[in-house]
Specification:
The structure holds 2 protein chains of 2 kinds. In chain A, 0% of the residues lie in helices and 56% in strands. Chain A is built from no helices and 11 strands. In chain A, the strands form 2 sheets. In chain A, strands 2, 4, 5, 9, 10 and 11 form a 6-stranded mixed β-sheet that branches. The radius of gyration of chain A is 13 Å and the shape is globular. In chain B, a hairpin with a 2-residue loop joins strand 9 and strand 10. Classes of the chains: A mainly beta, B mainly beta.
């Protein structure tokens, strides 16, 4: 089967750093992506890791360890507008099909 | 900045009716996808489309579903006979530079 595990919810305060972990078990693996979604709106691309290591894009960083089938999204200097759902998604084949996790709801408190 | 567009934003239909959801992918993209998201659940892959044919479909994408690229810009998802459980957000996406760009979605409500 195909499964991605991530925490269902995380709470943090403004200005803090939060890490959202994702472990995966899929039949194919062509990279791990992270998406942000506000209130049922369109998933918005945040980051992609095709190889092991850290990718940094502004306040967001993402890490991948293929040997551990594990990745994480790191959000720094949290802002209220970061309150949203965050999904990890495995690219399951060369055709680019995404297999999504259940999502982590991040609540940022003042 | 180019974006994926979808119409309508909200579609209400009676059970058993046919619906067509429309998408305009980003113009130079070659791979197109449909996903759905039932309220409160994860995003689920339905179908991928490349070179004017389906390249992969999920078990959700049964005979009631079909996709078409009728011209050089539109990409449509048709549900022939809607069921209550088809109520969901339907997202279209296209790929460029290792990034999958999603449209704003169509909220389908089946009564």
């Amino acid at each position: 089967g195909q499964s991605l595990e991530q925490p269902s919810e995380v709470t943090a305060v403004e200005g803090a750093i939060v890490q959202i972990n994702c472990t995966y078990q899929t039949s194919g693996f062509y990279g791990l992506s992270w998406y942000q979604q506000h209130d049922g709106g369109a998933p918005t691309f945040l980051s992609y890791n095709g190889l092991d290591g850290l990718e940094e894009t502004g306040r967001f960083s993402s890490f991948l360890s293929r040997s551990d089938s594990y990745g994480y999204l790191l959000l720094q200097e949290l802002q209220m507008k970061d309150s949203a759902s965050y999904f990890c998604a495995v690219r399951g084949n060369q055709g680019g099909k995404l297999i999504f996790g259940q999502g982590t709801e991040l609540s940022v408190k003042p | 900045e180019p974006e994926v567009t979808q119409t309508p934003s909200h579609q209400v239909t009676q059970m058993g009716q046919e619906v067509i959801l429309r998408c305009v992918p980003i113009s130079n993209h070659l791979y197109f996808y449909w996903y759905r998201q039932i309220l409160g659940q994860k995003v689920e892959f339905l179908v991928s489309f490349y070179n004017n044919e389906i390249s992969e479909k999920s078990e959700i994408f049964d005979d009631q579903f079909s996709v078409e690229r009728p011209d050089g810009s539109n990409f449509t998802l048709k549900i022939r006979s809607t069921k209550l459980e088809d109520s969901a957000m339907y997202f279209c996406a296209s790929v460029g530079n290792n990034e999958q760009f999603f449209g704003p979605g169509t909220r389908l409500t089946v009564l």
